[in-house]
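Ops channel
N.P.: pipeline sanity check, posting one input/output pair.
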């Protein structure tokens, strides 16, 4: 589930049946969002057996990049 907060931070989780969880906090600028997408994709693809939580803070996030991240 993806949730956007009023301060432009993003929270989403990838759930599996395993009890192991990894949390990621990422702070980026709007210009770094395409690279953030590649990083998140790589983490998901290489850790399918784990529950993953991503916390992303991007104060200057554009509407276009917000939609690319699932918002």
């Amino acid at each position: 589930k993806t949730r956007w907060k009023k301060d432009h931070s993003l929270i989403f989780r990838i759930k599996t049946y395993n009890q192991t969880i990894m949390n990621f906090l990422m702070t980026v600028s709007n210009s770094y969002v395409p690279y953030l997408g590649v990083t998140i994709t790589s983490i998901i693809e290489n850790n399918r057996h784990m529950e993953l939580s991503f916390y992303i803070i991007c104060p200057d996030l554009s509407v276009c990049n917000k939609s690319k991240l699932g918002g």
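N.P.: looks fine end to end. The mean pLDDT is 79.
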